[in-house]
Amino acid sequence: MKTITVQFQKRIQSLLILTFVLLFSTSAIKANYRDTAMSSTLEGRWDLTITVGGREVPSWLEVRHSGLNTLVGDFVGSGGSARPISKVNFSGGKMSFTIPPQWETGNDVTVEGTLQGNNLSGTILQPDGKTYNWTGVRAPSLRRTTQPVWGKPVKLFNGTDLKGWHPTGATNQWKVVNGVLTSPKSGSNLVTDDSFTDFKLHIEFKYDKGSNSGVYLRGRYELQIADSKGLEPVKDQLGGVYGFIAPSEMVAKEAGEWQSYDVTLVGRMVTVTANGKLIICNQEIPGITGGAINSKEGEPGPLLLQGDHGPIEFRNIVITPANK
Q1: pLDDT value at position 22?
Q2: How high is the pLDDT of residue 106?
């Protein structure tokens, strides 16, 4: 009788332990599911706007999962290239991350924000110790359901004056010399008066030794121009979409020679031929690059020529916009 009682007690203990394990496992699964579901609401691409001294400064953020519960991402500030985020903290609708400075000197950049529906808002602490407010909306996909119907080619530069263009800064160093659009020294960028959605672009350029420029597609995505002959094909040299897409090969000529880009931009998908060679084939541009005019990716945008990184010349600028 005593043996039966002991066995019964052991069986009850085993059942209690099993019940506890099941309850704990269920709670852990529910908590894990809840955390994963919350994380997925933050995942995606965000067009950000930072308010700096009354000005709107564009920025960009992408958050994605790595493994089950870890969030990582990329961040683009007002300048520079996309920077990796090793961990995005997110709990209770609050998110934060820290990245080292890129071109600045000082402390790390700290970004904090709150998610409310499809909107983000928060603060950014810059390396100089100053804090600014920012807001964010989900970036549009820009995916087309039909192929574009191309219109007629349009000359954006008439070879005579700056008609159809305007400088971004207070001082304009751009001028036309012997039919060539010329920026003899660092100064203002130059922007078209007209804006575009999808288009094909032909543009020719020439730079001095060590100079640097860029063509901003829709004013938001920089196609890099740099003295890159003999260098590796990377994201911040000639032919790259700055910080995002590296060219398949380096086709840069010597400084002082005329070179060319032929670009097709449809939604986010870009194809680039440089100096007659295909170097980017229908690749997606994730978001805006540093120095963009704004972060309103769903809107048409101008063509912007970078003039603040040294002498640069352009000619034969022809755009073929999509009619629909």
Answers
A1: 43
A2: 86
